[in-house]
Amino acid sequence: MGSGAAQPASASTTRATPGGRGNGQHAIPGQVNPYDMALEQFNQVAELLRLEPALADILRYPHRELTVHFPVRLDDGSTRVFTGYRVHHNIARGPAKGGIRYHPDTDADEVRALAMWMTWKCAIAGLPFGGAKGGVVCDPAAMSLAELERMTRRFTTEISLLISPDRDIPAPDVNTNAQVMAWMMDTYSMHAGHSVTSVVTGKPISVGGSEGRADATGRGVVFMVEEALRAQGQELAGRTAVVQGFGNVGSVTARLLHEGGAKVLAVSDLRGGVFNAAGLNVAGLLDHVQEAGSVVGFPGTQPVSNQELLALECDLLVPAAYQNQITGANAGQVRAKLVAEGANGPTTPEAAAILEDRGIPIIPDVLCNAGGVTVSYFEWVQDLQEFFWDEGEINSRLRKIMVAAFNQVRAIQVQRQCTMRTAAYVLGISRVADAIRTRGIYP
Ligand code: NAD
After folding, report:
1. Best of 322, 327, 344, 373 for a ligand 1 pocket test (most atoms within 8 Å of beta carbon)
2. Catalytic site residue 203?
């Protein structure tokens, strides 16, 4: 950007504010705005790397943002207007990639932050994608399946301005799943007049999904935990673990930790948590959740609140629910020896600094939960080639990519004597910056 360009004066210290509140607070009182969080993390490393100011500005601002307001007919015959977002943070390294979230608190800044984190995540894992994210402001728990389907199909149509197999490939995130991806793929295909399986990932196997995708994020978390323990001369077997969130990421992580010989002491969901000092029977718990819809009430356990759960003494804490969970207010109470971020943005920068001071390392989200997008990449490749791999091949390729990323991050961490998050950002931002420099500024 030249000196005459309409460059926001505050760009180097604060966030882009189109439509934003600009006061550093998220919609939920007391919580950190995720985009402020993402910018703080970025600014710190941009400075460390002495990134050219114009390049840093390119990376601070989302490349493009689409907000849509669209009507959906509800089961009672009434019509309600929903708001949705799709944001591309950066596409220098390839098509935009990132999940779609359905949540009552989703807003533009949250989606911007998640899109930026996707850019770094894809670059850290060495995947040929840029970063994107999407969301619809809604409460899926209060909607029927038919309403969710109509909302999904209309939202897909609205964002079809942006999505396509070579432009932007959505995937599941909080409160979306393989069924939602199947509706998205079907809607896009109806408009195209032929089946376009590669337009979304995380689909059911029957419509072009990949073996191993459902478990991929949790499996990747466990790979990263194993590597981090190995670096400390330890192994997973015999360690105690606590997992917040029991959805796609949390439940798979808990199951695979248990299968790897760890003792899972406690897990939770939005309704509360369960604890057993002798270790939970995770397989039994999964059956209980199928029937009861929550971990709460699982026989043979004591109830524990989400706040109490985060403060339990354990070797490993996996926040795998939502952002803003470990904050300045509770980081001092965390008694884990290692934190593995299954969720995106679960630890605020203030909390991360407190944990660091207390000698509690964090495997950062942009590395720790990259298994999902890695197998999404495999799914996209398989769909484009119409040639499918078996689960063994998927899991071994996943491991190879994630362990390579871990080792690269670790090498930077050792060289720079910094946190793992800073090292991961150094790797991710350098790769994206290099792509932008190499491509040059158009025109
Ligand atoms: P999900 O909707 O399948 O599950 C979320 C779980 O967290 C549910 O058990 C829910 O009850 C619980 N939860 C939500 N808010 C909570 C809160 N405030 N306190 C306690 N529990 C809460 O979602 P998911 O796909 O498992 O995603 C979880 C996190 O992982 C999100 O941050 C998401 O962005 C991130 N993530 C997901 C994937 C993926 O492949 N699905 C990949 C990378 C990162």
Report:
1. 322
2. no
